Amino acid sequence: MGIEINSIPVSLTGIQDLTSFMCLDEKVPAGFSSIDGEVIIESPATKEELELLKKQIDLYCRVLDDLKRPVRINIDIRKIK
């Protein structure tokens, strides 16, 4: 997009109830109930350019896509002698 970026620190915070993880309540989901993030962009770009950049990133970010939709997961266990 031709936008100059000097730095992009990212901070994520998640909320989790560990009672399920600790086997204390199986009704509580083991994963995060919410994830909040903050992206600080150091750039000479205008606010409008950065908003357009965010829209493009939101459309094509692989990690955001995985978090927003169900993903089929298959994990095998294999014993080594």
Descriptive overview:
The structure is a single chain. By secondary structure, this protein is α+β, with helices and mostly antiparallel strands. It has two domains: 7-39, no CATH class; 43-70, no CATH class. Helix content is 26%, strand content 19%. It has helices spanning 47-60, 62-68, and strands at residues 10-16, 32-39. The protein has a two-stranded antiparallel sheet. The mean pLDDT is 93.
List keywords for this structure.
2 helices, 81 residues, alpha+beta
Blueprint of the fold:
Blueprint: E1 10-16, E2 32-39, H1 47-60, H2 62-68
Mean pLDDT: 93
Helix content: 25-40%
Q: Give the helix tally.
A: 2
**Molecular shape:** elongated
Largest sheet: 2 strands, antiparallel
Distance between the termini: 52 Å
Rounded to the nearest angstrom, the radius of gyration is 19 Å
Low-confidence stretches: none
Total DSSP E strands: 2
Main-sheet strand order equals 1-2
Oligomer: single chain
Share in β-strands: 15-25%
Helix and strand pattern: EEHH
When the domains are counted, the total is 2
